[in-house]
Amino acid sequence: STNFTVFFIVMILAGSSSMGGSTTSGPPVPAGLPIPSAANKWKRMLECDEFVGARRSKHTVVAYKDAIYVFGGDNGKNMLNDLIRFGVKDKSWGRAFSTGTPPAPRYHHSAVVHGTSMFVFGGYTGDIHSNSNLTNKNDLFEYNFQNGQWTEWKFVGRTPVPRSAHGAAVYDNKLWIYAGYDGNARLNDMWTIRLTGETHQWEEVQQKGECPPTCCNFPVAVARGCMYVFSGQSGLQITNTLFQFNFKDKTWRRISNEHILRGAPPPPARRYGHTMVHHDRFLYVFGGAADSTLPNDLHCYDLDSQVWSTVIPAPESQVPSGRLFHAAAVIGDAMYIFGGTIDNNVRSGDMYRFQFSSYPKCTLQDDFGKFLQNRQFCDVQF
Fold first, then answer.
1. pLDDT recorded at residue 379
2. Closest by alpha carbon to 274, among 220, 313, 234, 334?
3. Which keywords, in A-to-Z order, does the entry hold (predicted)?
4. How confident is the model at residue 3 (pLDDT cuts 50, 70, 90)?
5. pLDDT of res. 378
6. Which residues does 27 contact at the CB level (< 8 Å), separation at least 6?
7. What are the structural domain ranges in the chain?
């Protein structure tokens, strides 16, 4: 005889994805799912050989396709203007092909990616070894990833004052430049230039709302149509406040810390020379100088719940030492941090990868399929 098995499966899945007040293990994983072993794990990658590119700080890092591009900075003796590349798949370093005239050696510049190009703006140039010809710049260079061509842009009309240690972001096909240091004072002005079209013209942005104080050496991150700025050097006004700038209405908003009264963790300590990146619904802050210390903890801000937490690294993580003036970028589900100034003013040539939390592949279909062949789970037999 033939047995026919009929069974009915009713499932109710419930869980919360909120990061509660005491959460310190980083981004949440849905209830009932195991945390992948690779989640929240730091790993030290292959160091960049000196013949490829020097150890450095005050440089920039951008991500394009499956590679990290490092430009400029200083090695403790000289300013740099080399462009080196780290392939995340083969985990190898090399010098990026380039042609044309690159920007002069510099540090505390900015670099962003738009389309198939990297745009480098401003920074501090000169001979730091002899302390001569030191000056801030307001030039803009485009590097084309496809053909390696460097091109300096020429402008019509007004231009931003030369500056270094500023913030830069891309939104709506425009480059946005914010604040920085002009050699005499910190700034908090904002300028934008369209990266498409034939006319290269800067426009000063009329900012509204609760603008941050004048500042420099701060990171910016773009998420959900907004630019976020956290801490930085602001003289006596330095704080650990997170500010949000809405690109469409050009309005600043100071993000309140009132939720701390509910028992949620406080924001990271005030600092400068740190990095901040956006991934999923989170902002991640790492490193910097915080009141004469160099912390190496990773902080996470949930854009939904507006709660800060400290990410606990996975076991066997190779956590980078504290540092400032490093640089960071995101490729896929990982953050890459390169270089920086570490203990005793030593420059680093290390690359670290931080694996974000990622949900494991759903196995419900395979698991329930096995029930068909298991008499233990039969509800009715004919």
1. 60
2. 220
3. Kelch repeat, Repeat, Signal
4. very low
5. 58
6. 19, 280, 282, 300, 302, 356, 357
7. 5-9+26-381
Q: CB neighbours (10 Å) of residue 146?
A: 9
What span, in angstroms and rounded, lies between the C-alpha atoms of 72 and 49?
16
Hey, what are 216's tokens?
A: 């420099």
Question: Cβ neighbours of residue 176 under 8 Å, at least 6 residues apart?
Answer: 168, 169, 170, 190, 191, 192, 205, 227, 247
Q: What is the CA radius of gyration of the chain?
A: 24
How far apart are alpha carbons 301 and 278 in whole angstroms? 9
CA separation, residue 360 to residues 28, 42, 88 (Å): 13, 19, 21
How do beta strands 251-254 and 208-209 pair?
parallel
Q: Two tokens at 321?
A: 């030492």
Amino acid at 27: P
Question: In the prediction, which pLDDT does 370 show?
Answer: 58
Closest CA to 164 of 192, 141, 135, 189: 135
Tens digits of per-residue pLDDT, 131-141?
A: 778 899 999 99
Domain 5-9+26-381 carries which CATH code? Answer: 2.120.10.80
Pairwise pLDDT comparison (368 vs 313), residue with the higher score: 313
What lies within 8 Å, CB to CB, of 362 at 6+ separation is none
Residues 6 or more apart whose Cβ sits within 8 Å of residue 282:
27, 300, 301, 302, 303
Q: What is the pLDDT of residue 347?
A: 97
